[in-house]
């Protein structure tokens, strides 16, 4: 114990003495530079390292099919895709009687790039022999796994457009997505077969079902009733069919549509975004330049949904760089994950990844778990952690001495090594996207995992390619400079008070242009025309609706959203107006403003209650109060109104995250005279947020 304390003292004192002599001010690195572009007037930036937009990782790799084939040849004998075999399954019964599945998983079993290429070719040939018409589309409806990626690449060997659909998508959205794109072949995991059987009469164009084989998979033919006009085959059967009946490839060109990706949708039915082969390749080529020294010595853990553009782009980057990809799941990720049998290893412990993508919610959970364990240990352990954390924080925030090699080594061995083992112990770079990452969590992961976080900003419509923070950028709260595949332009939004002439930084709507901008929304020219524009030079631009500002070094920060749609911490979109309209059906509500902080996974609400209704309830319930303001402060009154909101939310079929978790009752009505609503009684959201800032902050505590 005394040795540890002595080492800690040495780790602190020596660098401080050195710093008195050697401390210097860091020079600001220019990461983005202004550029003149076409289209609507604005303030535009490009990546400082690339004068010309990057479109391909190397000459000839202009499509996903070409990229896949060339990378597989280049890395033919190296590991590519890995999966863990299920050794055993157990069920444990909780105190409430519910049963939970627990898995004992083995080591990763790997296939080489050549083996994966051969399987993709076999699958492509098998689809043709099965009777799939290459002029129709195939859809993948499954959790992330190796076969998802193989089927995806196999389709491109025959220039088949792939429709991607979240495995968690609701029935109505699933039917809409498949029917709108006229999918003829549906590729799914075995869990989805029963769901599909129940929807058979609503799916009008499907002819073939291909399901992924598992050891306990049901027989597809027995699940889909015999009188169905669907031909049901296992993935292995299609591969074997193709192996015995090889077909020549029918390769796509750059402008062909590779993917129609259905987003989860903020309001109404989901929209299908059309991504060309050129879009996906450009994003991969650009991100390749951002991750330092990426190559086949790295290992990537894949567990996020491949139907989301973030994970799809990340795995395409790994393919491009020749990185092995080991598949896992959020439920088997760590040694303490829900589906991991006690005493056995989670995915990170077995794979020991060096690269990993994460959404903010997962990183938040890692942070909370570490802090909880530190608090439980208490004493000297907690004191050492706090000292180490503050020293590393000082280093990251600009004190040269804090990053000194000896101190780093000592703190790593004393404190951080065990924390890093939570994610396998070998992480050297993390990609984060899908929702805003809080500065506190970003800094915590930087320090405790000893790895930079590349925080990405992009949308399905930009094929994930827009901005990406660089490995040596120690700031938080920003999303970096434009990727080398695109320009980012700020366009003034006068109505919202954001202009490119603002000081000290230009502000405006974020507009992205370049090689990663997708072809628009499937079968929706009107919506496409609203948000996609082509300038006089032929460059395609997407208007994101986000409000950003450029820092002096060319990095982008997202500061607001034009519309009242907010993406929550877990990536769900919440339309504030839609929720408010639904909750107004409660007879307790005279007016309501729903508020959502993107750094949390729930929303809250400010409610002006109907005085007549609430006072009537209060009197009938025997609540004692002197005036209406006092009644609004009563916990019983808040609970009664909140229960009515929950009832209204259920009637409107709102999701849980759309139902306010906390509310505040405000006795004073909102009038045009107060400046809180318009003459037409529409909410002035910004004014309400400003007036009740303290109330909203209290609701999130």
UniProtKB/TrEMBL annotation:
GO terms for cellular component: endoplasmic reticulum; membrane. GO terms for molecular function: long-chain fatty acid-CoA ligase activity. InterPro entries: AMP-bd_C_sf, AMP-binding_CS, AMP-dep_synth/lig_dom, ANL_N_sf. GO terms for biological process: phenylpropanoid metabolic process. Gene3D superfamilies: 3.30.300.30, N-terminal domain of ligase-like (3.40.50.12780). Residues 102-522 form the AMP-dependent synthetase/ligase domain. Its EC number is 6.2.1.3. Pathway: Phytoalexin biosynthesis; 3,4',5-trihydroxystilbene biosynthesis; 3,4',5-trihydroxystilbene from trans-4-coumarate: step 1/2. Keywords: Ligase, Membrane, Phenylpropanoid metabolism, Transmembrane, Transmembrane helix. The chain crosses the membrane at residues 6-22. This is Acyl-CoA synthetase.
């Amino acid at each position: 114990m005394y040795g540890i304390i002595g080492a800690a003292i040495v780790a602190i004192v020596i660098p401080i003495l050195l710093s008195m002599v050697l401390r210097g001010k860091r020079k600001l690195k220019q990461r983005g530079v202004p550029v003149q572009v076409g289209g609507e007037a604005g303030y535009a930036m490009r990546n400082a390292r690339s004068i010309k937009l990057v479109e391909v990782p190397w000459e000839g790799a202009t499509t996903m099919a070409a990229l896949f084939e060339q990378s597989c040849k280049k890395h033919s004998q190296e590991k590519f895709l890995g999966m863990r075999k299920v050794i055993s399954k157990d069920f444990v019964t909780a105190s409430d009687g519910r049963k939970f599945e627990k898995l004992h998983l083995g080591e990763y079993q790997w296939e080489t790039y050549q083996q994966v290429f051969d399987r993709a070719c076999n699958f492509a040939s098998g689809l043709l022999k099965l009777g799939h018409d290459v002029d129709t589309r195939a859809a993948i409806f499954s959790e992330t796994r190796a076969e998802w990626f193989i089927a995806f690449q196999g389709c491109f060997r025959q220039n088949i457009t792939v429709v991607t659909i979240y495995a968690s998508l609701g029935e109505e959205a699933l039917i809409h997505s498949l029917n709108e794109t006229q999918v003829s072949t549906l590729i799914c995991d075995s869990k989805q077969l029963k769901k599909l059987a129940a929807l058979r009469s609503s799916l009008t164009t499907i002819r073939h079902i291909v399901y992924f084989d598992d050891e306990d998979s049901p027989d597809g033919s027995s699940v889909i009733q015999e009188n169905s006009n669907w031909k049901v085959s296992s993935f292995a059967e299609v591969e074997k069919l193709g192996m015995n009946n090889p077909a020549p490839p029918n390769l796509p060109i750059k402008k062909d549509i590779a993917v129609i990706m259905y987003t989860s949708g903020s309001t109404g039915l989901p929209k299908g975004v059309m991504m060309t082969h050129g879009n996906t390749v450009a994003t991969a080529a650009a991100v390749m330049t951002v991750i330092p020294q990426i190559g086949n010595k790295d290992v990537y853990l894949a567990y996020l949904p491949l139907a989301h553009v973030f994970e799809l782009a990340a795995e395409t980057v790994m393919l491009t760089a020749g990185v092995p990809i080991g598949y896992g799941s959020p439920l088997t990720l760590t040694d303490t994950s829900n589906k991991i049998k006690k005493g056995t290893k989670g995915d990170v412990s077995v794979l020991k990844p060096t690269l990993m993508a994460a959404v903010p919610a997962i990183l938040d959970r890692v942070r909370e778990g570490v802090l909880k364990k530190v608090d439980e240990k208490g004493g000297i352990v907690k004191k050492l952690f706090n000292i180490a954390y503050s020293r590393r924080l000082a280093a990251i925030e600009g004190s040269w001495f804090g990053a000194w090699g000896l101190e780093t080594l000592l703190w790593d061995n004393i404190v951080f090594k065990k924390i890093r083992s939570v994610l396998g112990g070998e992480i050297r770079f993390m990609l984060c996207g899908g929702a805003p990452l809080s500065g506190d969590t970003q800094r915590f992961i930087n320090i405790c995992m000893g790895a930079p976080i590349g925080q990405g900003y992009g949308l399905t419509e930009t094929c994930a390619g827009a901005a990406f923070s660089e490995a040596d950028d120690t700031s938080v709260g920003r999303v970096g400079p434009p990727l080398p595949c695109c320009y980012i332009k700020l366009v003034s939004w006068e109505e919202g008070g954001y202009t490119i002439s603002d000081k000290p930084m230009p502000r405006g709507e974020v507009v992205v242009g370049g090689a990663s901008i997708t072809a628009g929304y499937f079968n929706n020219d009107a919506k496409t025309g609203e948000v996609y524009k082509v300038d006089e030079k032929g460059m395609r631009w997407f208007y994101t609706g986000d409000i950003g500002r450029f820092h002096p070094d060319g990095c982008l920060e997202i500061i607001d959203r034009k519309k009242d749609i907010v993406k929550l911490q877990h990536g769900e979109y919440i339309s504030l107006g839609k929720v408010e309209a639904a909750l107004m059906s409660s007879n307790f509500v005279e007016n309501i403003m729903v508020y959502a902080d993107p750094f949390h996974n729930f929303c809250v609400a400010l409610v002006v209650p109907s005085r007549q209704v609430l006072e009537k309830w209060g009197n009938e319930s025997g609540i004692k109060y002197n005036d209406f303001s006092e009644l609004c402060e009563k916990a019983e009154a808040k609970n009664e109104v909140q229960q009515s909101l929950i009832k209204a939310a259920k009637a409107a079929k709102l999701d849980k995250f759309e139902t306010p978790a906390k509310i505040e009752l405000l006795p004073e009505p909102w009038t045009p005279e107060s400046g809180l609503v318009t003459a037409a009684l529409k909410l002035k959201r910004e004014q309400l947020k400003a007036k009740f800032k303290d109330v909203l902050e209290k609701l999130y505590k």
